[in-house]
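Per reviewer request, we include the raw input and output of the structure prediction for the construct analysed in the revised manuscript.
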Amino acid sequence: ARDGTTPLHAAAARGDGRAVEALLGLGASPRARDVTLGNTPLHVTSDWRCARALCAGGADVEAIRDSDGLAPLHAAAAEGRAEVVSTLIAHGAKVRARCGGGVIERGKTACEIA
């Protein structure tokens, strides 16, 4: 896609764990970023199973989104995705990390965002 969104981004966003696992098995990069916001598949995943597969596949749980300084944990907390939040924390996401600003007030932690 022109915006840099990959099939892995799309599968993660719709919560399709089987597609995420298949794409990772075919060599899709869990660290790929879209060019619009700098989202990785972890920033957009809607399902904890997808988050777990992405983490196991080498995704960076601390990847900072270019547009607003949010890590995947901040994005999941802002969207109310509690199971994704738990999965990211289990895979090493820093609970006390502060966001860079943008649509959410600069310096907020995921707990403050939720």
